């Protein structure tokens, strides 16, 4: 029985994680849950899964919740300290990190230091501090497992392969909702951008998919996870989103990972690894699909992807700056304060102003994050 802590349990990955626990009660049990502020959904989850501890990051305004959770035998903690406690709870073996944005960074480090296996769904911490995190994990001999579908695919394609035989990693992208839109993207509304053709995800990552920043961040994520240079990572648009990634080897062989477009596959693999478990998902019907399509991404039309490559090439604190400026720009776009095409402009301007730290520690990374948030907000 694997004891889990699920950070971000009311988000899309969190809910899917609990669906997997529900169909495999003999494999997994939930010891802790953490949310930003959705207490009522957290309570429903606690009634079903009976965790020992829950964290409400933003705190509890209504004190009566404490009594309700207490009746279930569940302890409530709050804030940064609470988040650290649910990430390091002694009975927990694996922490599923699925909090949106950079907020997941500190609890992931705490979990690794407490020698928990961490499965990381939100790419921001891996973009900001992936190198440091993997060094820390190697020191303590704990595994950092990717949940992001492309990286789960790469991880599976690379398993038991000689790293020296890898020539290139290929990430696929569905191309987002505006791949076929002709003319200017200037007037795109948040509602249009939130309508993703293939994946059902939270608002931040859905906008990132529309600007292709999601793929830019994934390039950096892959650099950090698989110790490979950005120039050896290629992005290809693949609208059916059936092939999630490929690895090209020096002998010309390519190994690809295919599956139906459902996050429960990569989530479950990170949970059950090294085992594979059955699930209730519809099978992949290749004959019904008939054809798979591929095209080159348009970096001029979607400059966020180019910025992702650039930040990765520059390295140091720049990926942090890219990530933080993007979070601020996406928030402003969703709030109707800026247009769709202002997103890459704000990110690029923030990157240009940044004084780079080449070999940053965690404190430098957090400083760069804060600085970039302030600077991007001014823009
Ligand atoms: Mg992905």
Oligomer: single chain
Major beta sheet, specifics?
7 strands, parallel
Q: Going across the biggest sheet, name each strand in turn.
A: 4-3-2-1-5-6-7
Total beta-strand segments: 11
Bound molecules: magnesium ion
CATH topology of the largest domain: the name is: Rna Polymerase Sigma Factor, Chain: A
**Mass-distribution shape:** globular
Helix content: 40-55%
What is the name of the CATH class of the largest domain?
Mainly Alpha
Number of helices: 16
Assign the CATH architecture of the largest domain. Orthogonal Bundle
**In sequence order, what are the helices and strands, one letter per element?**
EHEHEHEHEHEHEHEHHHEEEHHHHHH
Overall pLDDT confidence: 95
Which helices and strands occur, and which strands form pairs?
Layout lengths: L1 E6 L4 H12 L4 E8 L3 H11 L3 E4 L7 H9 L2 E4 H10 L5 E4 L7 H9 L3 E4 L2 H17 L4 E3 L2 H10 L7 E8 L16 H4 L9 H9 L1 H14 L6 E5 L5 E7 L4 E5 L5 H9 L13 H4 L13 H12 L3 H17 L7 H12 L8 H17 L1
Parallel strand pairs: 1-2, 1-5, 2-3, 3-4, 5-6, 6-7, 8-9
Antiparallel strand pairs: 8-10, 10-11
Helix pairs in contact: 1-11, 2-3, 4-5, 5-6, 6-10, 6-14, 10-13, 13-14, 13-15, 14-15, 14-16
